[in-house]
Design goal:
Elements lengths: L5 E8 L10 E6 L2 E7 L12 E4 L4 E4 L1 E3 L11 H8 L4 H6 L4 H10 L2 H17 L2 E7 L6 H17 L3 E9 L10 H18 L5 E6 L6 H13 L3 E6 L7 H7 L4 E4 L5 H10 L2 E4 L1 H6 L8 H6 L4 E3 L13 H12 L3 H7 L2 H6 L17 E4 L6 H4 L6 E6 L2 E2 L1
Parallel strand pairs: 1-4, 1-5, 6-7, 7-8, 8-9, 9-10, 10-11, 11-12, 12-13
Antiparallel strand pairs: 1-2, 2-3, 5-14, 14-15, 15-16
Bound molecules: N-(iminomethyl)-L-glutamic acid and zinc ion (ZN).
Length: 401
């Protein structure tokens, strides 16, 4: 073994997919994982140099991946929260011009600097719990300039904090008032102006849509996918959240990295995901906040071998929740995932939902050394308790961060 920069010994290893049966060692060099082996295979005297960290049996996981957030937004929707508690539904509020459109008004009114400052606490809360990669969507601007403004803020967050930010253009999130009764005209704007502008400025890694009765039709979403692919951008979908329109299957056939929410997904949709290799992203925070009763088809996803990612969906309306660790607990309690399935959802499968599975999300040689050391020796503890156990160390590209 060459001399690693850092060597963790006596690690309880959750590598993103499974827990190792015996104490492990993990060596990191130049920001990459160089070697992963049982302690029993370390040669006497290894390593000759570098820092050695005795984990004393603590759990080491990949850095956590939050693959679906709306962290950049203006205003608050606490009033809408109260209205929903009094009996109004999310759809009713949306159809009356509230919901997403109320955040659109506040986001349009905010400067780039204001949006940046408002987003920082949420981002830092995620990072403090071990998130090393986060996806951030636009979708509260709904004009070319306001969508680009949101994406610039997201890019700046990634430059100014030790976290990798993946940006997603969500122009097709809601129909803005200027296009009332002209949804196809708005989709023209998304396809012909927003996507080209975001691509030209390198501001978007992916393009997303809200395929729903209060969002856009399958046909409209398909037009967005075609435009995104023409610019070499990855695609994703908010699909089957409130009803079954077949948006997940359409997204999968268009080559989507993931479809997200999917409470109303049926078996034909699950098969379409399996055939396309599309990830199913579960968002229990939105399920909880909207007091949904229909659970995503977990057993069908398992049976057809569809990878399940798990994310906060942090946003001001349906999931004002900035804790990916809480999602581990919710995914188990509300959706009946096993703790290890939930952990894979925020590591290996979360990375796959962003198309980054060859770079992050696993502890394996050649991948980036984004790692979390936890104050527990049992990986299931991470999903079991809320508030504990705490993060012991967060590493980004091999450096404490
Ligand atoms: N479902 C649509 N979009 C967001 C909610 C956005 C909002 O209500 O502000 C979601 O992922 O839940
Ligand atoms: Zn969302």
């Amino acid at each position: 073994m060459s001399q690693p920069d850092r060597l963790w010994i006596n690690v309880t290893l959750f590598d993103g997919l499974a827990t190792a049966a015996e104490p492990m060692a993990v060596a990191v060099t130049n920001g990459l994982i160089e070697r992963v082996c049982p302690m029993s295979e370390l040669l006497v005297g290894e390593p000759a140099a570098g820092e050695v960290i005795d984990a004393e049996g603590r759990v080491l996981t990949p850095g956590l991946v939050d693959c679906h957030t709306h962290l950049v937004f203006g205003g608050s929707r606490a009033g809408e929260f109260e209205a929903r508690l009094e009996g109004k539904s999310y759809e009713e509020i949306a159809r009356a011009g509230g919901g997403i459109l109320s955040t659109v008004r506040a986001t349009r009114d905010a400067s780039e600097e204001e949006l940046y400052q408002a987003a920082l606490p949420g981002l830092e809360a995620l990072m403090s719990e071990g998130v090393t990669t986060v996806e951030i969507k636009s979708g509260y601007g709904l004009t070319v300039e306001d969508e680009l403004k949101m994406l610039r803020v997201a890019r700046r967050l990634g430059r100014e904090r030790p976290v990798r930010v993946i940006t997603t253009l969500l122009g097709a999130h809601a129909l803005p008032p200027e296009y009332k009764d002209d949804a196809d005209g708005y989709i023209d704007l998304v396809c012909n102006r927003m996507i080209p502008a975001a691509a030209a400025e390198g501001l978007a890694d992916a393009v997303d849509v809200f395929c729903e009765g209060i969002g856009f039709s399958v046909a409209q979403c398909q037009r967005v996918y075609v435009a995104a692919r023409a610019y070499g951008l990855a695609i994703k979908g908010h699909t089957e959240q409130l009803s079954n329109l077949g948006g997940s299957a359409a997204a999968a056939r268009a080559g989507a990295l993931s479809v997200d929410h999917i409470e109303y997904l049926d078996e034909a949709g699950v098969i379409a995901l399996a055939e396309a290799g599309t990830v199913a992203t579960l968002l229990p925070g939105a399920f909880y906040m909207l007091r949904e009763t229909r659970v995503p088809p977990i057993e069908l996803l398992r049976r057809h071998g569809v990878p399940m990612a798990l994310a906060t969906d942090a946003n001001p309306g349906t999931s004002p929740i900035f804790s990916l660790k809480l999602m581990l607990s919710m995914a188990c309690t509300l959706f009946r995932l096993t703790p290890l399935e939930a952990l894979s959802g925020v590591t290996a499968h979360g990375a796959r939902a962003l198309g980054l599975h060859q770079q992050i999300g696993r502890i394996a040689p050649g991948l980036r050394a984004d790692l979390c050391l936890w104050n527990t020796s049992n990986p299931a503890e991470l999903a079991y308790s809320v508030g504990l156990p705490t993060l012991n160390q967060r590493m980004v590209a091999g450096e404490p961060a």
